[in-house]
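Work Package 3 (structural annotation) set out to generate three-dimensional models for the target panel prioritized at the project kickoff. During this period the team completed the workflow that converts sequence records into discrete structure tokens, so that structures can be stored uniformly alongside our sequence database. As a representative example, we reproduce one entry of 224 residues exactly as it appears in the project archive.
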Amino acid sequence: MAEDQPGPPGSGHDDRPGQGSTEPLGRPTQPPAPPPASGQPGSAPRPPAPTAPLPGDPSASPAFAAVGPPAAALAGFWRRLAAAFLDWLLIGILAAAIGELFGVETPAPPAQGDGFNFQLAGTGPFILVELAYFTYFHATSAGQSIGNKILGIRVLDADTGRSLPYARAFVRALMSSLSALPLFLGFFWMLWEPRKRTWHDIVADSLVVRATLYPPGEFARIER
């Protein structure tokens, strides 16, 4: 019978009982494509990995105080001694000129039988000039006195690598006079101190480095 014959192809229905349409209802679901690898077209640039702040950076951590420059960059004993000798020689000339200007006499030798007669009247100009001299020069951006500049060394903050503030530069200059009292023990202390620091370096939390390796403003990087 005509009713029992299947319809023509493409008629949209199937007369076979129990069978549904064989046409797909939709496209099969495809897995998402992986994102393009870094450096490939269409890939978003990755932000640079955060780096630790360098000494001298305002955000630098005090943890750099435990690291600091390498031992080869620290100023040695003889270089520092030569720089101090030049500074003291210059300070002595200035102190003598100021003492002569204001009529301050140098102390006379003790008379026989006086024993140890320490006369400090003539040392006043020297101490005042020494304090003013080292406070000013070590608080500059270069951190160098005249003797330091000639010998190629710098005085810097041990935590940040910057120059010392005036208050700490003054404390360092004052402590340097006290370091010389017990047979210059405070100066010789740098010979066995791990970071080659004298007593006045420890009190002021300063380091003395070679300017050829750490020029002004470049405490965080060694020149090659």
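Residues 17-26, 49-65, 106-121, 220-224 have pLDDT under 50 and may be disordered.
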